[in-house]
Amino acid sequence: MGADPEREGCQGPDSAAVEETIALSGDGSCIAEARHRTAAFLIGDAADNRPTKVAGRIVGLAQLVVSELVTNACKHAPGPIRLRLRLADEAVEVEVWDSHPVIPTARQADPYRVGQHGLEIVKAVAADLTVMPEGVGKRVTARLLLDPHPSA
């Protein structure tokens, strides 16, 4: 299988990265499953050959991002959802694919609005957020830095 430059992500094709793709049903119960699977992936086993140890704070932020993105997919897209997690030396990437073609945008901040803050939250904690249309649906990718304040 050849390298896909769009999916090289954190470090490029030669990095010591690990990834996992998880198929989710798209019903409401898959949100908790996605959060659980994210924590299990990031914590990993000692034998996993992880490129780096992930701090508990980053695991929590990744679970938050997964929860928001999968919730949006469950609300707006019929059918299955694909969650892809990728861990490299400097970042963790959370990618959610769903079948809904509409590209989401974060709304203007409004302290009186109830709900619909998911993308605002993701943008606030992620170093990068991209949304790419696919042949069917879209792919939303958030990138969280493992060390948001690297020493200079």
From TrEMBL:
Matches recorded under InterPro entries: Anti-sigma-factor_SerPK, HATPase_C_sf, HATPase_dom
Domain of life: Bacteria
Keywords of the record: ATP-binding, Kinase, Nucleotide-binding, Serine/threonine-protein kinase, Transferase
GO molecular function, one term: ATP binding
Residue span, Histidine kinase/HSP90-like ATPase domain: 60-143
Entry keyword Cytoplasm: no
Pfam families assigned: HATPase_c_2 (PF13581)
Name by which UniProt lists this protein: ATP-binding protein
Record organism: Streptomyces misionensis
